[in-house]
Amino acid sequence: MNEQTDLLRIEGLSVSFPLWGGSIHAVKNISMRIRPGKVTALVGESGSGKSVLGRAVMGIETPAAQTSGHIYFNDPDTKERIDLLALPNEGRKMRSIRGNRIGMIFQEPMTSFSPMHTVGNQIEEVLKIHTVLSPKERQERCEEMLSLVGFSNPARAFNMYPFELSGGMRQRAMIAMALVCGPSLLIADEPTTALDVTIQAQILKLLRDLQSRLGMAMLLITHDLGVVASMADEVVVVYRGEVMEAGPVDAIFRNARHPYTKGLMAAVPDFEMPRSARLKPLREIEVDAVGLVDRKKHAEAHSDVVLSVRNVSKSFVTKRGGGFGLGASPSTLAVNDVSFDIRRGETLGLVGESGCGKTTLSKILMRGVTADAGEVSFQSERGPIDVLNARGEDLNLLRQRIQMVFQDPISSLSPRMTVRNIVSEPLEIHQRGDAKARLDAVKRLIRAIGLPENAMGRYPHSFSGGQRQRIGIARALALGPDLLICDEPVSALDVSIQAQILNLMKDLKKDLGLTYLFISHNLAVVNYMADRVAVMYAGRIVEIAPCDLIMRNPVHPYTKKLLAAVPTPNLDRPLDFAAIGQPSAEARKQWARQFQEDAPGDLAHADLGEGHLVLARRNVDVRELRP
Amino acid sequence: MTTKPGTDGDVLPHYVREAPFDPYADDAASGSSTLDEASQLKLMWWRFRRHKLALFSGIALLIMYFMIVIVEFLAPYKVHTRNMDHIFAPPQSVHLFHDGQFVGPFVYGQKMTLDMTTLRRVYSEDTGEVQKLRFFCRGEPYRFWGLVDANLHLVCPAENGHFFLLGTDRLGRDIFSRILYGARISLTIGLLGVATSFVLGIVIGGLAGYWGGWFDLVVQRIIEMLQSIPTIPLWLALAAIMPVDWSPLLVYLGITFILGLLDWTGLARAVRSKLLALREEDYVLAAQLMGAKSPRIIGRHLVPGFMSHLIASATLTIPSMILGETTLSFLGLGLRPPITSWGVLLTEARSVSVLALYPWLLLPVIPVIFVILAFNFLGDGLRDAADPYK
Amino acid sequence: MREMIRYIAWRFMVMIPTLLLISMLIFTIIELPPGDFFESYVEELKAIGEKADMQEIEDLKARYGFDQPMPIRYLNWVGGMLHGDFGYSFEYRMPVSDVVGDRLWLTILVSTVTIILTWLLAFPIGIYSATHQYSWGDYGLTLFGLIGLAVPNFVLALILMYLANIWFGTSIGHLMDQKYLSQPMSWEKFKSILEHIWIPVIIIGTAGTAGMVRRVRANLLDELHKQYVMTARAKGLHPFKVLMKYPFRMSLNFFISDIGSILPAVISGAEITAVVLSLETTGPMLIRALQAQDMYLAGSFLMFLAFLTVVGVLVSDIALAILDPRIRLRGGSTK
Question: Does the ipTM exceed 0.85?
Fold first, then answer.
């Protein structure tokens, strides 16, 4: 038998944890393999046991974990075949493999580094453990590695502390650390889940490049089949600790047979989908908004524009990078001269990477943050309200007409209140009806988001992330608002749950005649939801247009980049790494001349017709913008 | 059944699991268990309950606090009863058998002789004299809570006999009874002191955390300042302010106030930092954006959020209060006789020469240690339970 | 580096208002008791049938501005302290600095030795407890520590004295042989101090060590569950080295910032213990001064002690800034 061809063979691996007397079986009898120089993707929802498997291979699961089975590692360097599970966890042999022959990167780039040591120190340490290089050689190797993962000044990066780097750069440093010994296998545990799509694309490109360049194999653990399509050679789909389907990437994507795999695939929003098509989540929710429909009546009656935003700006005083707060601190423009309208009944998508100012903007609209300048006008049934300066009755009315759905499903619900109290809180604040009427209203809302009535007596801790998000939506709907501001409502969720929430929101909008401002960093999600899309970059809206138009025919280079960065579960439409591999700030320098800003005031919105506006130089000819 | 990962080196065969598949198996919405409907308070209780030592300590403390209500009934003697013929009598042990015969709990009589060379009183057990203890008996009359005349005791010495479980002091007062009476002062002073610092801590720390700005800055500086002065010298200085002619009650309240006055800083800090953390939570922001007014946000969201933590940390500061009282009284700057607290009792043991002869004078320290340990365990348990989602 | 110097300068500047506030508080406290030293002094003399030298008293009163309003007296006191004049002890009829003399240094000596001992003990015990969580060793050490916390300092002193009395028949106490008391520092005197100092150090240090072990354990346990520990293990680092380089390094910061809380506690403990053991430190004198309303002596004592802790906290803050890059480079709090 040809023993040496598989790099890693996992046979009958089971992992369980003792819990409250019983035990939880996180991984049940899984077998899989990783071939040298190839990428195997391990796909599943959160809680499917895929990360446990990754940690078990490294032998860094908690000592409480009970494992059985075999993990054979065929080291191509030594030609040895070792059962990793049979080795003592902290023994010399296991440690000589860990970090040396097998590297690992984690989901959270923010917490994976010690804040007390420099990046260089932490990377160099790996070499110190596994090689006999001199300190000077070690530093050279580290800097080489840092430049390989995209640090333009590796010598400087070597001496920086992790907290001085952005999330994306930290993940790059993490990769450098995992690869500095030249392992033959890299375990990447959700390496991009905590990142924006644009940065995700950069990191994926980097991983792909390094993987082929260094000839190493990779175990890519992810919940996003879109990522898998662009990266993997072989795919293993797990659900509740068991393999549902496994095979070469072609077979999985072109001929998925297991309902779970099909479900995961159907849940990823895709640009090729017809606009009227509907995502099919694994678990569909029955929306029953019948009881809420009466709220629809006051819509339509008034002016077409619900919210009109004009020239809003907001700057923050930033803490200086290396200061103790003495001396003048510069301020950055988080929101820079932003104007747009939201029409009644439409969904306006607001897209941009983190830090572009979209959350600040949403908080300004909710009166959570005060703007420096600009005007926002809300069209209520009592006439227009000046949002930024409203007080008393007007503000009270605003607080009922505009509601917010938050990103974090855990932090947005008070752990001390039952679902019933959470959903009825807005009714209590605005003294709607008596206790009985409020209870009826809560019942209707709970039905509307597809939860059983017994959910009312339960506490948030007993719900999953997606269910919590639905409760958040019910709370936002309680007062029968006109406008819902949704700040990344699905970014913290698995792709499979994401589709469910998106469908729910679509259905509710249709049934209740709502208006959405839908904020996201993922253009595919916005494409699925929005009628019009505004793209935001560095505090400004760089392009705004009807959804069809912007998706078919984007004009601004940043929009194009965002479009290219979205991973889809389609082998024929892989990520275009050439277009998206650079950090946005770098890519900006290569934008065409007509989009560049040399001095403040250079840029203005050029009208391309059909409501399509692009931020470009003032004097530029509209035809020049079309490629 | 085992999945086959494919033969080595071959193209991976397309494997599909045949077993039935239920996408809703993970969905918690389907079932409803007691855990789901448990309030946070219930979760905390469940978690606290697992902490056996804390649970036991809590129960022990409850019993002790109940005991101080009925001290008059429990103590065989009154707090100031002097037995002039039993000065510095050593502890008597309780026996059950006399001459191999069961007689029930009793003590032997004590015979005192004066050692003329050392001028010491020497007590010896008179094994001939069996003094049977009486239970639920009529004994020394007292005024219950200074209101009702009564003479019922849990245990009394035999008629014309004596019962000094822990010995007597230089005035022949029963130390066991005095410890029981002392508990009344020592245990409540910790509680009242914490109540004082609790109120101060919540109000000041809460305002600092909620308002922020200059108020926060000033409060922070004041806290820093108070924390950098060593507590005991400051207590001493403050205690020295109290005029000698104050009534016992005033002194008691004064000491309580002093202890609380210097202790609030830790709690205020805890409240402030917890508030700042809570304000970052989306659900608080959500309430604000829904139009909730400050009282509602504070009452419904912030206070419940930090209360459990606060109670836990307050519990952990009670020991330092009790220690503080004991220390101050011991140094003669705290409570003074006729008030009887554990600290006051310990002043009797102040000099080593006395201690060497009458070591039982140090016995009041045992309840001090016990109570402090119990509060520490209880506080640890509460703190662990305070955040059931951790 | 420039940032560092700026930070230290800023930290020094913050210290000044803190000390000023403390001095005001202390002055208020020692002024609060009704009456003054002279009243009780005259009363005392009257009680034993003697007449006080009223002229001398009037002189002293005038000299120390007892007829002046409180703010003026406060300014005089603070102004004097800036010149090294700490006022006059009425009871000893000597300038405060002469009365205090050695005692202050001995207080500092006892406190420093105690803190060092506390660290030396608390570090390894805390690490052991955290890494062997829920083992018998952990339980034993935790219980031992709790008992250490629960026994009041003065009781510990009494027990030690009692045991010494029973076992050796000698009385322990004092910081040195009495014959060296007023002598200048010499080798013999130093040796005598060393012979005596361990008892107060044990007594004062017990509670501090116990408290610190608990805090180190809790802190280390928090750190042990952080993601970066798993990263370090994934590198193949030896578990012990992982522990020492990462979580331990993190809790070192916590340790240093803990000086701020341990120093006042140690000084408090030292004062009490000093009374019981009749040590030649500031403790007994402070209490006597407070009782006799010898206000300058008491006030200056309190001020010394507060100054000690403020400086201790300053040193710990600066050390922390040097050790913690997050403070050094961002000036932010570490949380």
Answer: no
